[in-house]
Structures are given as C-alpha cells and as structure tokens.
Design goal:
Number of strands: 6
Shape: elongated
Strand content: 5-15%
Order of helices and strands: EEEEHEEHHHH
Largest sheet: 2 strands, antiparallel
Length: 166
Amino acid sequence: MTHGGIAAGRLGDLIACPECDALYRAVDVPSGARATCIRCHAVLIAPRRRAGMTVISLALASVVLVIGALWFPFLRIDTRGFRQEASLWDVATSFTDGLLLVLSVVVAAGIVVIPLLRAVLTLYTLTPVVFDRPPAVHARSAFAWPRRCAPGRWPRSLPSAVRSAW
C-alpha cells in the first residue's frame, strides 16, 4: 500500500514529522539544504557542518565540568574564623542513615552518575562515526539509552519522593 509516496518497506527508513505526524522516507540531504514537511512545513532534516564535532566537544566539556564540580567546592561560608565548604560530592552523600540513604543515592545519580553516563555514551557512539570509522559494537543501544534517560523523561514523582523522605 502506498500513501504519500511511502511504500511498504523498512520501518527504519521512515521518519515522522514532529508537528503533524506525517510519515516520510528518510533521504540524504545535502549540506546547507533542508527537508521540510509538505503538510505543515516543519523542518525534518537540516544537516549542519561539523555538528558531530560540536556534540563531541560539548559532551567532553560536560565530563570535565562534572568531574571538576565533584571535588571543587561550589559553596563556602566564612564566619568568625570558621570555614565551611560544600562540593557536589558532599551534597550527594550528605544523608547516610535509614531511608535518607535512598534519597542520597537518587541525588548522586541525578547529579553525577546519569549526566556522566549520558556524556560518555554520546562520546562512545559519535566519536568513531565523526572520525570516519565504523560504528562501535553496541553503538545503536548506547545511542538510544541517553535519550531514554533525559531529565525531561524522568518521572514527575521525584518531589513527592523527597517530601516523603522527610
């Protein structure tokens, strides 16, 4: 069955318009050109020069910044000769008793583990491709995982979990 120029074939070749859900067959678009939806004119594909290198640079920068933020204090209070400092690691591991230990693990995962894992998996996936080498062995699943773990997709119940831990 053919509808809108799309014949039954491989589903991996199809892309959907993010605005109106029209289906199209993915094609190579030359650099500087754009593929747009016929129905709503939303941009479907817009290749940019050096986009992969930009993503790699940003992922590498986020790894360096998260590791630096772990150990260097972001908060310091000096009062009457007393000094108190706090780093991300101090905040993430501040609760060590009872049910608050679960909160501490969730905070550590949200602040440190998940962002680092997302950046490392992005580097693992894109670095070989950008440098014209074959993709890594598990690149497909490694590329899908960071998108599934994006903060916008986390359950909205985290504030209620924090409230119940108090």
